[in-house]
Design brief:
Largest sheet: 7 strands, mixed
Order of helices and strands: EHHEHEHEHEHEEEHHEEHEHHEH
Distance between the termini: 42 Å
Strand order of the largest sheet: 2-8-7-6-5-3-4
Structural class: alpha/beta
Length: 395
């Protein structure tokens, strides 16, 4: 007799740093664009001109969230392409000997683009060390800066530990010791969730990805400063100021803009997200003796409100994730882009975390659509599964 296994009902989705559920406004915008606004923005008839206007309006929406100019927004396929365009596109314009610096917390899209630039252009790529709590070693950075540095790459918020990097302090140090260096910020985990102003903090480029803030997958943007030089990495019809050829993804761009417009103001979200994080910590820390929070003190200004990374040895992360899935709880194990690889987290390794603790690390990441009840349920399930699994885990 044939039978089918029923998927468990999702009770708490807490892997929002991997991806988020699209908000209804984004879904509606995508559908509307596909049904009635499907025209090519490069064509000349009226409907196409209207499509081009909607793309231009989306640029303004995206830019205003980080106090930037709409003309400096290039739509891409997501965070990875945005990072690659920022890094490879800018370094293709650089001349003479020099170096590239990137933090040891960077996403592979940034790190690997820097290593690719090293091979293509001959600039030496070096990693800026982290401290044990995941924050950047500013003393080490000072020692690495010189007039020969061409580019400094730093993520706004670490996708694993939730560290808010001191971009403003890094920019000030750059101004002092490497004034010709550009700064690229991977804002994928920070955009809309942690305030940022490109006008106030003098950085040259900033990358975003729509599916991290309740927009559709497959669309993102690179925002860059006036007079910042970038060469294209894709070649074709010369769309988007000849920096990103290819017919614009108008449904995706519409969904991205709608998600930005629908996202609550920071003063409305920060308290909610931090309350979710506190609720999880309260349950976990009181019930799991071996619990270790990986990253900065959750109460510090260096800790993002929407990410909590914990180690719960001796239970392995993969075992815990699957046990929780059966209870309708979804959590992550770090960077979703490398979760299927066997190697340990490079970020946690750079922080000096032991292999045993790394292997037992899970990440809870919250969204404005989560509730305290969901988070409490998830934390209680983690405790319950921990008690069950730790009894059968070889220590």
């Amino acid at each position: 007799m044939a039978f089918s296994m029923l998927e468990p009902e999702v009770q708490a989705y807490l892997d929002n740093s991997a991806t988020t559920k699209p908000c209804q406004a984004a879904v509606d915008a995508v559908v509307r664009s596909m049904e009635t606004g499907y025209y090519n923005p490069s064509a000349l008839y009226g409907q196409a001109v209207e499509a081009e206007r909607s793309v231009a309006a989306a640029r303004k929406t995206v830019a205003s969230a980080v106090d930037a100019e709409a003309e400096r927004v290039i739509f891409t396929s997501g965070g990875t392409e945005s990072d690659n365009l920022a890094i490879l596109g800018h370094l293709a314009t650089a001349r003479g000997p020099g170096s590239i610096l990137y933090t040891a917390a960077e996403h592979p899209a940034v790190k690997n683009a820097c290593l690719e630039a090293e091979m293509r252009f001959g600039f030496k790529a070096s990693s800026i060390p982290l401290q044990q709590d995941g924050t950047l070693d500013m003393i080490a950075l000072r020692g690495m800066l010189s007039p020969e540095v061409k580019l400094i790459c730093v993520m706004q918020v670490c996708n694993e530990t939730g560290v808010i990097m001191p971009v403003e302090a890094i920019a000030a140090l750059r101004d002092e010791l490497a004034p010709q260096a550009a700064i690229h910020v991977d804002g994928v985990q920070g955009y809309l969730r942690v305030p940022f102003s490109m006008r106030k903090v003098r950085v040259q480029s900033y990358a975003i990805s729509a599916h991290k803030f309740h927009g559709p997958k497959g669309v993102g943007a690179l925002i860059f400063a006036k007079n910042h030089r970038i060469k294209p990495i894709l070649f074709g019809g010369g769309q988007q100021q000849n920096l990103r050829s290819g017919t614009e993804n108008t449904p995706g761009i519409a969904g991205l803009a709608a998600a930005v417009e629908a996202y609550p103001q920071y003063n409305e979200t920060a308290e909610l997200l931090r309350s979710l994080k506190k609720a999880a910590i309260s349950v976990l820390s009181s019930q799991i003796e071996s619990l270790r929070i990986l990253g900065p003190d959750p109460e510090s200004d260096a800790s993002a409100p929407h990410i909590l990374y914990v180690s719960i040895p001796p239970v392995r992360a993969e075992t815990m994730v699957h046990a929780l899935e059966a209870k309708g709880v979804m959590v992550g194990t770090g960077s979703a882009c490398s979760s299927h690889k066997s190697r340990r987290s490079e970020v946690l390794t750079a922080m000096g975390i032991s292999p045993r603790e790394i292997d037992s690390s899970i990440r809870l990441s919250f969204s404005v659509h989560n509730t305290v009840e969901e988070v409490t349920y998830a934390a209680e399930q983690i405790v319950q599964q921990y008690r069950l699994l730790s009894a059968f885990t070889r220590r």
